[in-house]
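[Q] Does anyone have a clean structure-token version of this?
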Amino acid sequence: MFDDKKLIPVFPHTDEECDRCANCKRNHILNCSSDEDFSVYIGDGWSDFCPAQYCDFIFAKNSLLKYCEVNRITYFPFSNFDDVVTRLIELKGKKKLQKRHQAKLKRQEIYKQG
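[A] Here you go.
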């Protein structure tokens, strides 16, 4: 947005309770899925730490992978999107998929607040 030749940044997807990100990926996940859905998250960096906690299946590399290991969050490592597609096809073929319990609890915590 321009105002008298000054560039003024606008962050329409920020979360007022969070001062870490200008685009709250967690809120996108919560707003675009229901608790009946299986949520999948693919990430590799610092801005993925928060939203990954709310997802059932996490594909991680680089610093997100390290974060998942340190915080004992179940994840699938990946190098490229072919790895992700292959694993999703495998998961789709399973008779019964389980939601990640900690992600379900974190989503319920947020839903109760709203």
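[Q] Thanks! Anything notable?
[A] The beta strands are 2-3, 6-7, 40-43, 57-60, 76-77.
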